[in-house]
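Researcher: Hi, I'm a grad student and pretty new to this. My advisor asked me to get structures for two proteins we've been looking at. I'm not sure of the right format, so I'll just paste the first sequence and hope you can take it from there.
Model: That works fine. Here's the first sequence with its structure tokens right after it:
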Amino acid sequence: MFKLVLTHPLARNLDLDDPKATVVRRQILREKVFLRKLYQEWYRWIVEALPRQSGPVLELGAGAGFLQDHIPDLITSDLLHLPDISLVLDAHCIPFRDGTLRAVVMIDVLHHLPRPRIFFAEALRCLKPGGAVIMIEPWVTPWSTLIYSRLHHEPFQPRAKEWEFPSSGPLSGANGALPWIIFKRDLDQFQREFPEWRLKSIDAGMPFSYLLSGGMALRSLVPGSLFGPARRLEKALGPWMNHLAMFGRVVLEKTELL
């Protein structure tokens, strides 16, 4: 009953793998002020992290978002057939020529890819030297593990031995802990397998804001006017982020091997 009361009216009885659900989530994102401000902050960070060179930028999993408002010439893509998307594609097979992209950007996408090694190889092929993959993904901490494993609908398995997981639906299939597994727990292995990638930065944070926003499924727990104070409070918790962070901002840079 409690969850039913908190569930956003538009999000009830949605099948996540149905393209109609993504269209509804797009509407929710635009209407919820606190959540929209959160995404705007994420988008500003993505823009700041873009490589300072020419070339197209590809967004994966663009379905519900509005990053094109911040990058006007952005190539938007999604695995699902959705309105206002430039391309329908699978991130395991990116339809661009070698060395043509400036960046690949994505929010909450990597942990849905059942074969991440194939994606990393494809991104390397498509990017120019100095190009980047810029992503925002769930992160593993004691706090996030409690929240994601008990309150979130997606699988969250920090102890998974393999990076791969069985492919089911495009959105229902996932391991929310995968980005942390690759870039934290198994970083040495990642660097051995992909020496062309340089992990340029990881910034873990945002322990409470997404919860307060209600995300894509729940009602907002606070008004949009409290976004600024909430973020200032979170930033003041800097030393505690190893225990509290729920999201990681990751930048991978393609290098040239000598």
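Researcher: Oh nice, that was easy. Here's the second one.
Model: And its structure:
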Amino acid sequence: MSHTAALPAPVQLPGLVHLSDGRVLAVGGLDAGDASTADIVGVLPAPAHLAGKLPQPAHDIGVTAVGRTVYAFGGGTAAGPLDTITAIDSGGRARVVGRLPLAVSDTTAVSIGATAYVIGGYTTTTPQRAVLAYRPGHPVRVVATMPHPVRYAAAAVIGSRIYVAGGTTGTQSRREILEIDPATHVVRVVARLPSPLAHSAGAALGGLFYVLGGRGDSLTGQTSAIWAFDPATGRLRRAGRLPVALSDLAAATDGDQLVVVGGRDSAGVVHAERWTLRRS
């Protein structure tokens, strides 16, 4: 694990995405004063730089890439959640290209092929169980329903399946690792974390689903643990530690390494570091 104070400013709850051209972008989030930011930051290639702006500041955004275009789904603002689907092109220009069925924040987004999937979320009154599918140019549709509502979950794709770890219903953090098959609409519990965990980051590397950091129901219960789940064997194992116990961080896969940015520690300090994690 190496780290560099590489971000222009501290950030928590950004969306982080790796593009097919090798860039890694951090989208939105909350700054050190808990205010939403509209910044689109180019994290890689280094040095980090401002690459664009969202149409309005937002945090807790589900972000993923379809080809060379980044899509941001919903997000939280001072006035409440958004229902927007925002496309960010290769030049950092952002524009609204669609609408979600509901205004939601606290989502996680992943993509398989030409389709983006939006997992869970929160409307300010109701946590969500739905997994939504969005194919650019087509209407949003529900492809699966999770056994319980999920906010602030870690998620990643391995093969044709989506893996979702932990999260919270809004009142209670969860332990389950879910496997979602969008093609058959089947959702099943495939493992359980050692303890309830939300506000963590997820990424896939080498056929494993990594769950990094997070916290339980306590605002000061951040962990530095990194867990790895192997879908082929169903085994969950400890895979290392972050340099700092963090929640509300973001992670993405970049070649043979994981890139981790931002987050909040148990003292309430919001971080501006970028870490890279390589498999041992």
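Researcher: Is there anything I should tell my advisor about the second?
Model: You could mention this: The CA atoms of residues 152 and 167 lie 5 Å apart.
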